[in-house]
Amino acid sequence: MPAPPNGVIAGWLARHHHLVLDGALGTELARRGADIDDPLWSARLLIEQPALIREVHLDYYRAGADVATTATYQATFEGFARRGIGHDEAARLMRLAVALACEARDIFWREAQADPAQAQRARPLVAASVGPYGAMLADGSEYRGDYGLREEALMDFHRERLRVLAEAGADLLACETVPCLVEARALARLLAELPGAEAWISFSCRDGEHVSDGGPFADCVGALDGFAAVAAIGINCTPPQHIDSLVRIARAHTAKPIVVYPNAGEQYDAVTRTWRGTAHAGGDALAGAALHWAEAGARLIGGCCRTTPADIAALYRRWAAADGAS
Fold first, then answer.
1. pLDDT above 90 (res 306)
2. How many domains does the chain have?
3. Are strands 267-269 and 274-276 parallel, antiparallel or unpaired?
4. Domain annotation covers residue 90
5. What is the strand order of the sheet 172-178 is part of?
6. Is residue 193 one of the residues assigned to a domain?
7. What is the pLDDT of residues 92-136, one digit of tens each?
8. For residue 137, what are the contacts with CB-CB under 8 A and spacing of at least 6?
């Protein structure tokens, strides 16, 4: 992966106050009528509707996102094999996911060059999503972390997939919704096997102090702090009411940038594959909370499940107004 001397994220944050992430991909595809009721989730559309994936990426860039995260969260060799898709075709689909985000970025950038209103925008990034082992199981265990696997076994699971994605042309990797320290360490150790690669690692958390398997979030952050290729550490797909506490914990245990992209506040039922409750982090609510999280130390902020391009547009407008006032 191409990277400036100090890394993609460090280089960006040396020039800008913050990095605006995109919002949900899978639930946004579903909102537009796609059927993702499948163990492959959004990766199913790499086979059936790749143009729709590109369209969503493009809409996030247009909304103000500085990063698009690829449709590879549940794209694994094991998951594709269950659908009768062989190794080589699975690798091609993973590379396609990165290509779709890069194509959307190129379309947006051509538009931005011709639009004076976009003159302040920097050329955005592409992050290749790496979901946890539990995402492949498709049973909600990325919100429990009860795998019962050792670190080395998780490294074996992630190794080739990580290599394919790292070589596919993305700017960085997004290792996300990690529920436990053992898997985070496995991913961090694998990054050292990929020269030039960098990633953020973000955890799913059950409350304001613990990751999904019950371990202290502080211990997870501290354990990753010494890995050079881990460029940012944080939280995603966690209810927004827990984020402030988690950001403050992260800030106390690492000097690395803090990444935050909560879900909209609803709860996912893995049995019925539906969302319950009321969204609390949409639109202006997400934008207002983001400024608060930034004050606490977060510098990469966006949305996860059930957030939309409209939510990211509100976040972008709020950032722009705050920057203009500073």
1. no
2. 1
3. antiparallel
4. yes
5. 19-20, 298-301, 258-261, 230-236, 199-203, 172-178, 125-130, 67-69
6. yes
7. 999 999 999 999 999 999 999 999 988 889 999 999 999 999 999
8. none
Report d(CA 70, CA 199) in Å as an integer. 14
| Terminal Cα distance for the chain, rounded | 34
pLDDT value, residue 321? 78
Q: Residues 300, 21: contact at Cβ < 8 Å?
A: yes
Q: Are 223 and 253 spatial neighbours (Cβ–Cβ below 8 Å)?
A: no
Which structural domain, as residue segments, surrounds residue 42? 8-325
Q: Which pLDDT does position 140 carry in this prediction?
A: 86
- Express each pLDDT in 250-283 by its tens digit: 999 999 999 999 997 666 555 555 545 554 555 5
Query: What pLDDT does 209 receive?
Result: 98
Distance, in Å, from the CA atom of 34 to the CA atom of 29, rounded to the nearest integer, reads: 5
CATH code, domain carrying 209: 3.20.20.330
In a domain, 2, yes or no: no
184, part of any domain: yes
And the tokens for 191?
């990054």
Asked if residues 168 and 151 have their Cβ atoms less than 8 Å apart, the reply is no
Give yes or no for residue 81 having a pLDDT over 80. yes
Average of pLDDT values for 301-318? 94
Contacts of residue 276, Cβ cutoff 8 Å, sequence gap at least 6: 266, 267, 268, 269
Strand-pair partners of 97: none
* Separation of alpha carbons 45 and 25, rounded Å: 11
H-only helix segments in 23-114: 26-31, 44-48, 50-63, 77-82, 87-113
Cα–Cα distance measured from residue 24 to residue 261, given in angstroms and rounded to the nearest whole number: 9
